[in-house]
Amino acid sequence: MTRPMPGILAIIGLVIAIFLGWGSGFAIYWRLAYVLLLAVLVGMAWSWFNLRRLELTLERRATRGQVGVPLEGRIRIRNHSRLPRPWLEVEEITDLPDPHAGRVINMGSQDTRSWRHIVECNRRGVFTLGPVRVTSGDPFGLFRVKRDFLGQQRIIVYPRAEPLPNLNLPYAGLPGDGRRSERSQHTTTQAASIRPYVQGDSVNRVHWPSTARIGNLMVKEFDQGISASVWLLLDMHQRAQAGEGVDNTEELSVSIAASVATQLLRVGIPVGMAAYGDHPYVLRPDHSVGQGERLLELLALVRARGTMALGQAILNVEANLTRLDTLVLITPNTAAGWLASVEAVRERGIRMVSILVDPADFGGSGDTMPVMEQLFAHDVPTYMVKRGQNLAQALAAPLNVRRFDIPVRADLEVQV
Fold first, then answer.
1. Is 44 left (phi over 0), alpha (psi -120 to 50) or beta?
2. pLDDT at 358 over 90
3. What domains sit in the chain, N to C, each tagged with a CATH number?
């Protein structure tokens, strides 16, 4: 129940005192009415004038944040009046969870105050910051007047992406698909270095700026480059998730996708992503400068409210794959129905990797063992990530088949 403002109670008391004064003729009621009237007028005027002739600015370093990394800025407020401004409450209005508490300041005549303003980013998504609200009161505590400065600002909070220095996903077995590139005897789009000219080198490989600077003919050496691309398929089916709040399989899966995508782009591998959640999100592979931000923005927006079965999602992505691509599946789904789609992808000769999020750690039902057995049988390298586990350790190497006492076929190569 909301308590009425003391100023409202004072006005009601003023009306009652005037009514009793007229009705009874007692002077005490008129004296009380005069006191209440004076308090109300002074309180209203004080609260209103206390917010006049104020100038407020907010300088923020960025409009994009990441979970766990606060957004920093600086608030500066200046009093242009010769009168002091006591007891001002300053806070930024936002729809972020766990918003930053406001600050109470006292300002002297023509005074300027500034302080560092920190916004904690505890959840991924799109949020609004602002306006900055300044609240003032009167000496009697009757009224609170608010004034908003600046406008609203849209920010996007990316999911947490952990460094994965030891990540070595199995890519399609083609030249140039490893983590390191190699020298090429043919002209490619990637020039790696220069070397002195030798007899037989083509003239179109001569690097003329270096030749002019050194005084000898210098030719370009080319990199073989990376020919494979990686598709990340993030399972955002609502019934496959487990956990509550931000401690759930959805947030862990999104963090895994962000970490893997960031690491692959860092080594120059084209990365694309598909996630069928509240909306279908599909981003084709690319390794340009802006691809990392596009992927993180996709992951900030997607929500696990999807209704498309994981098997159908795999087939939708499979239509875009070639034998040069690798499909990385990230899922907490322990049902076996989607494994038929895995078999169809493997029959086409497409390399596939699975990263399982254990739902049992989040209070979910289902056993991951039968799913892992089927994935091992289809020669799909599989990783397991548990609640609270370090991602760099969990994704350092695929699981060993023998660790789970699974019969190993003679033609099945075990990856350690």
1. alpha
2. yes
3. 6-49 (no CATH), 54-158 (2.60.40.10), 183-223 (no CATH), 229-404 (3.40.50.410)
